[in-house]
Design brief:
Blueprint (H helix, E strand, L loop, with lengths): L25 H6 L1 E2 L2 E2 L3 E5 L3 H7 L5 E4 L3 H4 L11 H14 L4 E5 L9 H15 L3 E5 L5 H8 L5 E6 L5 H4 L9 H17 L3 E5 L3 H10 L4 E4 L7 E4 L1 H4 L16 H17 L15
Parallel strand pairs: 3-4, 3-10, 4-5, 5-6, 6-7, 7-8, 8-9, 9-10
Antiparallel strand pairs: 1-2
Length: 290
Amino acid sequence: MSTTFTIDTATSRANPTPAPMKRLTVPAIQRRKFEGKTQEPLVMLTAYTARQAQLLDPHCDMLLVGDSLGQVIYGLPSTLAVTLDMMIAHGAAVVRGSYHSVVLVDMPFGSYESSPQQAFASASRIMAETGCAAVKLEGGEAMADTISFLSQRGIPVMAHIGLTPQAVNALGGYGARGKSQQEHAKIMADARAVAQAGAFAMVLEGVMEELAVAITDSVDVPVIGIGASAHCDGQVLVTEDMLGMFDRVPRFVKRYENIAQTIDGAAARYAAEVRARSFPTDDQVYRPKI
């Protein structure tokens, strides 16, 4: 079980601190899929900060500290430049800000691919320094031995197959996968390989719906879809995409709000009041008490 850290509400804006409750566990997530079926789909969103985690935590089963933070937080062109230190810093913040969800941290590009031993060194550091419950890594059959190595040493692993952003250069872009019969068979083989290797769940990204349905029905572990199918055992989205923080989002994203417009409007009102010297008002300044 992951560690829960308490936020000091006397010094932190991230309050009120939620009432303590038992955190979900990896085995609890696994048990949600019983005899090949998941009655209530699993809910997962990305989180990168303590406050964001607090707001999302009551609604989610899992919070993913995704390497997508490279693009969402740092403005990088891809996830490839994300470092282990970046993932650990944000992972620790999300654990501190949550009390209910299973927190997973992405293993960044270059931190696990060369050998199972390298992966263990990186994953053990992530878990020790963040308090998270599991790690996520990209790759199918090629990563099966690594997943097995980690799982046998007490590190729960969520696999990530289909469209794998860390392999964007090899894939030639972010287009949907599984269109050809050959690619369909390869991704199906990847799903079976990571499940057999001991992954407790898998993210299935950017694949044709027919393939997503087939994979969900053919493996015993939960399949979390993103650009896949409502038939999957759960869904994940990048929170900022879901909230409408960016002008351009993938086709598979549904915007539930337009937060960018809200922020733009608030900043415009603030700027206008500052320039008009109508802010701050009497309510926002300190004066001697009479």
